[in-house]
Amino acid sequence: MALATDAAGTNYFCVVCGKGPLTGQIWMSKWGAVCSDCYKLENHCSLCGLPIRPSDGSVKTGDGRFICKFDRPNTVLDAAGAREVFADTRRELVGLFGSGFALKYPEVTVNLFDVDYWSEQGHGDNLHKFGFASTRKTPKGDCTHEVVLLSGRLRSELTATAAHEYTHLWINENRPDEHVIDADTVEAICELSAYLLAGADKMPEQQQRILANPYTHGKINALVPLAAQTGIGYILNWVKNGTTSDITAPAYVAPVAAPVRQIKRVPPPLPEKLKFTGLSVIGSDRKAVINGLTFAPGEQRHVQLRDKSVLVRCQEISETEITVQIDGAPNPVKLKLSKPD
Fold first, then answer.
1. Suppose 278 and one of 11, 34, 75, 289 were both cysteines; which one would form an S-S bond, judging by CB atoms 3.0 to 4.6 Å apart?
2. Using CA of residue 87, residue 89, residue 95, residue 98, what is the dihedral sign?
3. Helices (DSSP H) in the chain: which residue ranges?
4. How far apart are alpha carbons 34 and 3 in whole angstroms?
5. Cis omega before residue 204 (within 30°)?
6. CA 191 to chain centre
7. 22 with 42: CB under 8 angstroms?
C-alpha cells in the first residue's frame, strides 16, 4: 500500500472499518483508502496486503495466511475448486497446442494443501513453489500422475501454476529416458505453457510476472522469442526427439515430417445445463460451485450456458444438494452434487 495525502473534497472512507471522511495522511490499497488505525492492524491479506479485522468476512488458511473479504470470492480454497481449475486449464492447453499435447494416461490426481511444504526455504533464491507434479511409471510403461497445488491463491495465479504442472506431466510421458534436459530448460518449457495460456486469456499482468520470476534463471526469456519464431510444435518436438540438454543450442533440427502447429485459442465448450460440482465449508459459511461460479445462500449471478444466459439465485446449500431459483422458472430446482467434467 502507498501513503497519500487526502485532498479536499475527495471524501475517502476506510474500506476496512468504514470510518470517514478521512483527512490528512491515508493509505491507498488496490481496494481503496485505509485509515491509519486499520493500517496498524497485526494481520494483513497475504494476496493484496489489506489489513484484516476479526469477523470482517476474511478467511484464514490452515498455515496461517489471511485472505481478505475482497479477494476471497476469486480465491481457490478447497480441493473441488482446485480440480476444476486444473481441468479447465488442461482443456485450454490442449485447445491451444493441439491434440498431441493431451496426456496418454489422462487420469490425474489433484490435491490441495494449505502448507507450502515444498517451499525451498533457505536454499539459494528462497523461492516458493506453488505446485508440484509427479509421474510414476510401471515396469509395463504405464503412468500415474499426481498434482499438488497451494491453496489460498487467486484463480488466475492458480491457473498459471496448473498449466506449469500439467506441462511437467506431458514432459514426463513424452521425454525419452536418453534425452537428458537441463533442469532450467524443463522449468522454462513449463513456464512457457503458462505464459502462452495467459496471453490467450488476455492476462498481460500474469505474463509479466512469469517473465520477472527468477525461477528459471532467465531461461524463460529465451524461450518466449523462440516460440514466437518457430511455434510451440518445434519445442514439443525437441522434447520428444532432441538430443541436446538445452533447446537454445544449435544442434537440434525439428523433424521435417512433424508439422509446426500454430497457436490458436479454442475456448472450452460451455455446459448445456447447471451443475453443482463443489462445496466450500469454512466455519459456518458454505459456498456452492455451480458451473465454475461460487454462490453463497442468497447470492445470484448470471450463468452462461451453451445456448443462453440464465439468472440463478442460490437459496439453500446442504452437503449433497442445493436449491436454486432460475429466472423465469415457476418453481425452485434442486441440484445434486456431481463430479466436475
1. 289
2. negative
3. 36-39, 79-97, 155-174, 183-200, 204-212, 219-230, 232-241
4. 10
5. no
6. 13
7. no
**Which whole number is the average pLDDT over 91-117?**
88
Instruction: Return all residues near 218 (Cβ < 8 A) that are at least 6 apart.
Output: none
Torsion angle (degrees, nearest 10) of CA 35, 39, 45, 49: 90
The gap between the terminal CA atoms of the chain, to the nearest Å, is: 40
Tell me the pLDDT tens digit for each residue of 271-313.
Answer: 678 888 877 766 667 888 887 777 888 888 888 777 777 888 8
What is the DSSP annotation of 317-332?
Answer: E-SSEEEEEETT-SS-
* Cell 465454475, located at residue: 292
Q: Calculate ∠ Cα 167-175-237, nearest 5°.
A: 80
Joined together, the cell numbers standing for residue 71 give: 479477494
Global confidence as pTM: 0.69
**Rounded-to-integer distance, Cα 37 and Cα 334, Å:** 46
**At residue 189, what is the residue type?**
I
Q: From CA 251, how far away is CA 314, in angstroms rounded? A: 59
Q: What secondary structure, in 3-state letters, does 16-75 show?
A: CCCCCCCCCEEEEECCEEECHHHHCCCCEECCCCCECCCCCCCEECCCCCEECCCCHHHE
Closest of 158, 84, 3 to residue 338, by C-alpha: 84
Element (H, E) at 302: strand 300-304
Nearest to 171 by CA among 196, 201, 191: 191
Predicted pLDDT of residue 278: 79
Q: Which tens digit of pLDDT belongs to each residue from 134-152?
A: 999 888 878 999 999 989 9
The 10s digit of each residue's pLDDT in 199-235 is 998 999 999 999 988 888 889 999 999 999 888 999 9
Cell 458451473 found at: 291
297 secondary structure, DSSP code: T
In angstroms, rounded to a whole number, what is the distance separating the alpha carbons of residues 197 and 96?
8
Q: Are 145 and 133 in contact (CB under 8 A)?
A: yes
* Beta-carbon count within 10 A of 327 CB: 11
